[in-house]
Amino acid sequence: MSKKIARLGMSEADYSRLGLKKDIIQKWEDGLRTSGKLGEYEWWYFDAKLEGGYSLVIIFYSQPVTAATLGYAPCVSFSLTGGGYEMMEEVSASVKESFFCRKCCNVKIGKNTFKGNLKDYTIHFENDRVNCDVSLTGLAESYRHHTGEIFFGEKKYFAWLPSVPEGKVTANITVDGKTLNLTGSGYHDHNWGNIGMFWLMHHWYWGRAKVGEYQVISSYITAKEEYGYEHFPIFVIYKNGKKLGCDINAIKYEQRDAEFDPMTKKHYHKTLVYDYNDGAQHFRITYSAEDIIETFVVEQGYGSARAKASKALIWFVKKMKLSPSYIRMVGTITLERFDGGEVAEKISENGIWEQMYFGLDADV
Question: What domains does the chain contain, in order, with CATH numbers?
Fold first, then answer.
């Protein structure tokens, strides 16, 4: 099998073709980026760690990552854990009941809305059981890893924009008539692409952490065999909203403590380590998983409300011998800052991270 090229979009030609400015993120970048073509998908993601040990995740989709039809298929997922809750809800709406703005983040799906300007956001979710209003105020400036796109060949791509790497959250959540008024730390990013990720990627790990005064976003993407299992480490660290470093050449990545998940029938690593050392500063971030709070298995068509596989998609992935699955984990995230080879600072906090697996279970 001849190796195809997978690369980060970072050339002058890439910036020009996409209409982007280096190191300047514009409001339109968090608006609609797809057009409903077959194979496209897009979502606006929000998660929060809230007081009392609550975790909240809300995702707005123009087309789910598992979409297998032409055009938009708007839906919203809601997940709340902690305080005795472990619930996942989903709302779908017709295209006529939905709106997606290209000038900024302004999304409406039925009665649900996700609006913002790279700094201040409001999110509303409701169904027969839940009514939720969220306010997110960014404390760290938006980040784009070069153009934000990874190209597989020249026409296929996956894109990612961390619009709010870390922010202050106020959430008013009513479930079955009981209201929670909570505050905490939140995150918002935006993803889109033009072909199913199972054609491009073998798997990824992604996480974000608020650890003391520091904010971290990390990802490790592994391309499929035909792209040479190319690895893409992505890492950025902030302190009190000020970016300290994001040089991918300064990252050493390690994964260990493999564990088998019986639902997805995949191994995941309970420990992930990102060691960042650019010569001027040295940090080590360790993710230690303690529990799985969400899973999804495409070929079985079940899991959480994050996505629901159609019969056509289930048939397709089985026929093509694909095996897409998803695991969202919670646990302890530890940050160590080194000074002259010695640990000068060490802080641990609870956090959320995920594994998305597209290929067969193999250690690559």
Answer: 6-357 (2.40.370.10)
Strand partners, 292: 329
Residues 6+ apart with CB under 8 A from 76: 58, 59, 60, 61, 90, 91, 92, 109, 110, 112, 125
Q: How many CA atoms lie within 13 A of 249 on its CB side?
A: 2
Distance CA 80, CA 73 (A): 23
pLDDT for the residue 12: 95
- 279-308 burial, b if ≥16 CB within 10 A, otherwise e? eeebbbbbbbbeebbbbbbbbeeebbbbbb
The residue count of the chain comes to 364
Question: According to DSSP H, which parts of 131-202 are helical?
Answer: none
Q: For the CA atoms of the chain, what is the radius of gyration?
A: 19
Say how far apart CA 100 and CA 160 lie, in whole Å: 18
- Cα distances from 258 to residues 152, 268, 285, 295, 303, in angstroms, run 28, 6, 18, 17, 22
Spatial separation of the C-alpha atoms in residues 145 and 253, rounded to whole Å:
18
Partner residues linked to 120 by β-bridges:
137
> Beta 75-82 vs 149-152: how paired, if at all?
unpaired
Tokens of 219: 């990802």
Give the residue with greater pLDDT, 243 vs 322. 243
Q: Would the pTM count as exceeding 0.90?
A: no
Average pLDDT, the chain: 89
| C-alpha atoms less than 13 angstroms from C-alpha of 121 in its C-beta half-sphere | 37
**Residue 291 · residue 310 · CB < 8 Å:** no
**Distance of alpha carbon 71 from its chain centroid, rounded?**
23
Is 58:132 a contact under the CB 8 Å cutoff?
yes
Residues contacting 332, CB < 8 A, separation 6+ = 287, 288, 290, 348, 349, 350, 351
What letter would DSSP give residue 66? T
Whole-angstrom Cα distance, residue 197 to residue 159? 11
Separation CA 292–CA 294 (nearest Å): 6
Question: What's the one-letter identity of residue 55?
Answer: S
CA within 13 Å, CB half, 196: 19
What's the whole-number mean pLDDT along residues 265-278? 93
